[in-house]
Write a structure and sequence with these properties.
This protein is α/β, with parallel strands linked by helices. It has 20 helices and 12 strands.
């Protein structure tokens, strides 16, 4: 009995200390990425790639998120040990400021270094965050990028109206517009809309406006966004492209990657959609891979980033999700040439001097003239909490008149039904009561 008790004790200790799990943490790669933001077969192929390069086995634990702030909180407050995450540009900036990132390794065994395939343009944009030896490109590698603009139904919205932010505030589109549930895009759009004349006259730049977080600018943005509410059918993070493809709304302030997906899906059912970055200018954004400071396997994380930068892998991811990779090699350009297009774009800023006039989808790869009127929105910094409060106030009364009426009708109908039921019960009880009294008198 003593020997058996000793065995039970040892087993219990093993369970408590975790020694029952023989898998080492360096054989696990924990990835936290946006939903629907990678070709799933790429994950399986990386396992083989990593084994071939290092001789080590790796297992991937893959989780997804829909909101940057949710991901950020889990890492900052929860200290979760993700090895690799894919935040947007402003979150990367915030993580850099708070020293939450590890540098990415650039030396790899038995494989080529593909990090140099990233377009210099995207590196330069990310390096605006922190200069010198702490430049963002040491800690982040751009994954996908794009613009924010107007996706519209060409049968319901004339192009001359869609090419300006004015269309979002046009009362004739009341209840017919979807907006990204993103305070950054909404804020920048409102500030640009308010300063249209100043932009035209060269008194201010789009970059200055989108990164003006002064009390005056924030009050103005809140007023304009509240004025916009009657036109809003909903605030969406992912369902807008589907609603547009099915013709249920006519305008969607959205990201270029979602626009590509929606345009293709809509065409299959005879709905014609188009996308444009308004003439006043707009937001250009980047999502990038970073290694949080709590990572337990930075080695595998660095190998994964290198693998993602391989041209064939970049092409597969683009085909799977509709967004545009930051990889800018001749193979990518050749694969994206479409001679059926009736227009040519200047993409030298991205692919180099050989791409001065090429037939490439201008929703995915905007012309240089479009990029020149766009800017990167920086982190709100100390004004983040105030902006979140503004955003909550903007959305709190945005149900729309129709939905509000329905809610009140249902509420009053339910209340009337309960009152009527109780009144009938009361009358029935009173009738039985008087009936009993009469019967007692007769007796």
């Amino acid at each position: 009995m003593k020997k058996r008790n000793l065995i039970y004790l040892l087993l219990s200790l093993c369970l408590l200390t975790g020694c029952y799990n023989l898998e080492k943490r360096e054989n696990v790669l924990k990835i936290y990425n946006w939903a629907d933001y990678i070709d799933s077969s790429v994950l399986d192929e990386f396992v083989e790639y990593y084994k071939a390069c290092t001789g080590e086995d790796i297992r991937i634990i893959y989780q997804t998120f829909d909101i940057n702030e949710v991901m950020y909180t889990r890492i900052e407050k929860g200290n979760e040990d993700f090895d690799l995450v894919c935040p947007s540009d402003y979150i990367i900036e915030r993580m850099l400021k708070k020293e939450m990132l590890l540098p990415i390794d650039t030396v790899f065994e038995n494989t080529k270094n593909y990090l140099g395939n990233v377009a210099p343009y995207t590196r330069e944009q990310l390096d605006l965050f922190i200069g010198g030896e702490h430049s963002a490109s040491n800690y982040a590698v751009c994954y996908m990028w794009g613009t924010t603009g107007i996706l519209y139904n060409t049968a319901l919205v004339p192009r001359e109206e869609a090419i300006t932010w004015d269309c979002l505030w046009d009362p004739k589109y009341a209840g017919k517009i979807l907006m990204k549930d993103s305070y950054r895009e909404a804020y920048g759009t409102a500030i640009i809309y308010a300063n249209k004349r100043n932009i035209e006259e060269g008194k201010v730049t789009v970059e200055e406006l989108m990164n003006d977080f002064s009390p005056k600018a924030m009050r103005l943005a809140e007023k304009l966004l509240k004025d916009l509410r009657p036109n809003i059918a909903g605030w969406e993070s992912d369902f807008g492209k589907e609603q547009m493809a099915k013709g249920r709304v006519c305008i969607n302030m959205t990201w270029s990657g979602d626009a590509v997906w929606a345009i293709e899906e809509a065409a299959a059912i005879g709905v014609d959609l188009d996308y444009v970055v308004p003439i006043e200018g707009g937001n250009i954004w980047f999502d990038g891979w970073v290694i949080p400071k709590y990572a337990k396997n930075p080695k595998a994380a660095s190998y994964f980033i290198n693998f993602i930068c391989r041209p064939d892998i970049a092409l597969r991811n683009m085909e799977a999700i509709g967004y545009v990779s930051a990889i800018a090699t001749p193979e990518i350009l050749a694969a994206k040439i479409d001679t059926t297009l009736e227009y040519y774009s200047d993409l030298r800023y991205f692919f180099g001097e050989d791409a001065g006039s090429v037939q490439v989808n201008n929703v995915q790869y905007p012309d240089k003239a479009v990029v020149n009127r766009c800017a990167l929105t920086r982190d709100f910094g100390d004004q983040t909490e105030e902006m979140l409060e503004i955003w909550a106030r903007v959305k709190e009364d945005s149900l729309g008149l129709g939905i509000t009426i329905v809610i009140f009708v249902v509420f009053f109908a339910s209340t009337w039904w309960v009152i009527r039921k109780r009144y009938k019960h009361y009358k029935r009880s009173r009738r039985y009561h008087y009936g009993d009294q009469r019967r007692m008198k007769r007796k």
